[in-house]
Amino acid sequence: QVELVESGGGSVTAGGSLRLSCAASAYTRNGRVAWFRQAPGKEREGVAAINTDHGGTAYTTSVKGRFTISQDNAKKTVDLQMNNLQPEDTGMYYCAASWSAYGMWNSPRNFPTWGQGTQVTVSS
Question: Residue 14's pLDDT band (boundaries 50, 70, 90)?
C-alpha cells in the first residue's frame, strides 16, 4: 500500500512563502498527485494537481500565478511552492494520489490514497 507523507507547513504573514513536500513510498508514472486543502467549516478543495506521466498541471483559479506544483520522479516527491500567501490560504493541506489520471482532478473521490495533512496558517 502506498503511503504519502507531507511536510513543510507552518505559519507565515500575508505575502510570505512556504514550500510543501509530499513523499510517496512508491511512485507510478501513469497517475496523478494533487494537493487539497480544507479550512474549518469548509469542504475539501482541490488546489493543484500534476500528471505523473507527462507532467501536465492544473490549478484552482485562486492560486494561479502564486502556487507551483512540481514533481521529482527519482525522489518520489511532489512539491507545492506557495508564494504571496494570503489569509484565505489558511487550512490543512493534504497530498493525495491516484494511479489513474481519469476523472476530475479536483474531486477528492478520485484519489484513493491520502497523507495525514500539514497545517498552513497565514496571518494578516
Answer: very high
